[in-house]
Amino acid sequence: MSSPPSVSLTRFLIEEERAGHINADLRLLIEVVARACKTISIAVGKGALGGVLGDAGTPGAASINVQGEAQKKLDVLSNEILLEANAWGGHLAGLASEEMDHSQPIPDVYPRGNYLLLFDPLDGSSNIDVNISVGTIFSVLRCPDGVTHPTDEHFLQPGTAQVAAGYCTYGPSTMLVLTVGHGTHAFTLDREVGSFVLTTRGMRIPEETKEFAVNVSNQRFWEAPMQQYVGDMLAGKEGPRGKDFNMRWVASMVADVHRILTRGGIFSYPLDSKCRDKGGKLRLMYEANPMSFLVEQAGGAATTGRVRLLDVEPTGLHMRVPVFLGSKQEVETATRYHREHDAAHGQVAAA
Ligand SMILES: O=P(O)(O)OC[C@H]1O[C@](O)(COP(=O)(O)O)[C@@H](O)[C@@H]1O
Ligand SMILES: [Mg+2]
Ligand SMILES: [Mg+2]
Where Mg(2+) 2 is bound, by residue (predicted)? Predict the structure, then answer.
């Protein structure tokens, strides 16, 4: 019995357009981002042979980005690949990146479109030199009507305004995970053919889980409700949660979230006293929002520990937020710990 014909990303997007879920411009935009990810995947795959490992800048003069972080060569290269690929397509009005201080309108020499693209060109940078999965994360918004040269303020739209989001993981296989607001779907790169093929239509995150992902080395800096929440999980079945939990932490958000979309779990990067003044560690616009859209479309949940992440009003392009996402019931439990603590201590829910 012959196997069903494989569905390429191109065919999948054309079917989404026929279903009225996306228009031709958004379809082309996603195709262009996917092609850029293929180019990044090749560079990542070459590793030391491609001279792409290590820090950008020169010895003694590291190249520091708007986050105050030393850029890796692959952070810079991936950013350039995405900028070049998206400049001339005619479906964008502007783009913004983790690696750039401000957004950029599409140059006047090129036709302009109605969408805004935000991306984390290389996620999991601390894992680049040690050959652990890294990725690219992207989010798509509409450009406000009548705006031809968008500036940072035009990007400041809540996560609920996203029309598409996705990530690409560069691991043992290269995978693209995508939503246009009608479920979350996974594609695997067929390296021989050079195209993404649909491998999971309609990913579903189990509502319950026994697996959590958090950088426990930050425990002493956590808020009291987070200490309690993780302490109760670590207490196992003898403890208040009545079940044993396992822990995973890859330190590449794309890899940790991909595991959760595939088999469930909860991922969190909570507020702690080290990052409190910044509002958190992870960035709302090109990390938390796209991942939350993908997770919610797969039946999961995403909060800041206090409020739904997709409802957060952005105040800056590189705004940071606490993140809890994954299996619905577990995220609700983690959020309850924070809300009950706030209520008991007369604290009003912040972001
Ligand atoms: O080093 P830590 O504290 O474990 O943090 C790891 C987190 O930081 C990140 O690497 C931040 O992203 P970038 O690599 O894009 O800066 C996430 O991918 C990951 O979840
Ligand atoms: Mg990142
Ligand atoms: Mg990054």
Answer: 120, 123, 287
Cα–Cα distance for residue pair 313/19, rounded to 1 Å: 31
- ipTM score above 0.95: yes
| H/E stretch holding 75 | helix 73-87
Contact residues for 204 (Cβ-Cβ < 8 A; gap 6+): 298, 299
Kindly list the distances between the CA atom of residue 226 and the CA atoms of 48, 221, 325, 349, in Å, as whole numbers in the listed order.
40, 10, 14, 15
Burial of 107 (0-12, 13-18, 19+ CB in 10 A): exposed
Domains of the chain and CATH, by start: 9-200 (3.30.540.10), 211-344 (3.40.190.80)
> Structure tokens of 335?
């959020």
- In Å, what is the CA distance from 146 to each residue of 25, 138, 140, 154, 308? 17, 24, 18, 11, 30
Q: Residue 198: is its pLDDT beyond 60?
A: yes
Residue among 67, 123, 138 to mutate when testing ligand 1 (max atoms within 8 A of CB): 123
| CA 251 to ligand 1 center in whole angstroms | 5
Distances in whole angstroms, Cα of residue 1 to Cα of each of 4, 6, 61, 197, 332: 9, 15, 61, 21, 45
Does any ligand 1 atom lie closer than 6 A to the CB of residue 253?
A: yes
pTM: predicted TM-score of the whole model, two decimal places: 0.97
pLDDT at 351: 47
Q: Is ligand 1 within 6 A of the CB of residue 303?
A: no
Distance, CA of 174 to CA of 199 (rounded, Å): 12
Alpha carbons 41 and 122: distance in angstroms, whole number:
11
Highest averaged pLDDT of the listed ranges 52-61, 89-98, 282-291? 282-291
Token look-up 């952070």 returns 75
Contact call for residues 211 and 246 (beta carbons, < 8 A):
yes
Q: DSSP per residue over 192-228, as a string?
A: TTTEEEEEESS----S--SEEE--GGGGGGB-HHHHH
Nearest-angstrom CA–CA distance, 195 and 189: 6
Q: Which class for 145: exposed (0-12), middle (13-18), buried (19 or more C-beta within 10 A)?
A: exposed
Pocket flag, ligand 1, residue 223 (CB < 6 Å): no
